[in-house]
Amino acid sequence: MSDEVGPRLRALRTLRGISQRELAKRCGVTHSSLSLIEQGKVSPSVSSLKKILDAIPMSVGDFFTMDLESGRKVFYSAEELADVGTGDVIYKLVGADRRDRALSFMIETYSAGADTGREMITHQGEEAGVVLEGRIEITIGTSTRVLGAGEAYYFETNIPHRFRNPGDTACRLVSCATPARAF
Fold first, then answer.
1. In the sheet that 82-83 helps form, which strands lie side by side, from edge to edge?
2. What element of type H or E holds 42?
3. Is cis: bond before 57, omega within 30 of 0?
4. CA 132 to chain centre
5. Are residues 175 and 147 in contact, defined by beta-carbon separation less than 8 angstroms?
6. In the list 75, 133, 147, 182, which could disulfide-bond 151, CB 3.0-4.6 Å?
7. Are 16 and 27 in contact (CB under 8 A)?
8. Which DSSP state fits 90?
9. Does the CA dihedral 156-127-129-169 come out positive or negative?
10. Are 31 and 56 in contact (CB under 8 A)?
């Protein structure tokens, strides 16, 4: 087994917020044995490692393939959110720099009277959102509803849809769509 088992185990345990003593108790390994493994002084057998990882829980395969320090950006200031909207609609995309992202997570702002266009939109996947402030009229297929702060939506995006702000003030909402859309 690799020399990285101990440091990986310590990093995983720390990320999960589990103390050494707690993990030892959960998996039935002595605290001193776990400490020696984490220090790299003892190499666990595959069955011992599996027993320890079952208590976390995590598979042995995931343990060796997970990226504990990807080096990728994980935090974004408000100024770093890319605006991928057009006209009176602002879409602040979180993680725009991630080309392999699996979803589109956005803060959307519709100025008074703004909409996504006369044509209904369709694409593959699902979309959900929560209105933070203001009001938004959402048409999904033949159903239309005006949502206010605190109200939410969730639908399959292959159904034609459209968003419009019928109010006199801006509407802000948070949305998430899968798969990630290229903007």
1. 82-83, 89-94, 104-110, 171-178, 126-133, 152-156
2. none
3. yes
4. 19
5. no
6. 147
7. no
8. E
9. negative
10. no
Helix (H) or strand (E) holding 22: helix 20-27
Q: What is the pTM of this model?
A: 0.64
Q: Are strands 152-156 and 126-133 parallel, antiparallel or unpaired?
A: antiparallel
Contact (Cβ atoms closer than 8 angstroms) between residue 139 and residue 162: yes
pLDDT band at 87 (very low <50, low <70, confident <90, very high): confident
**Identity of the amino acid at 178:** T
In the beta sheet, which residues pair with residue 123? Answer: none
Cα separation, 84 vs 182, whole angstroms: 10
Answer for the pair 81, 142: CB distance below 8 angstroms, yes or no.
no
The model's pLDDT over 127-167, given as tens digits with 9 standing for 90+, comes to: 999 999 999 999 999 999 999 999 999 999 999 999 999 99
Query: Could you identify the residue written with the tokens 């006209």?
Result: 87
Bridge partners (DSSP) of residue 82 are: 93
Report CA 57 to chain centroid distance, whole Å: 20
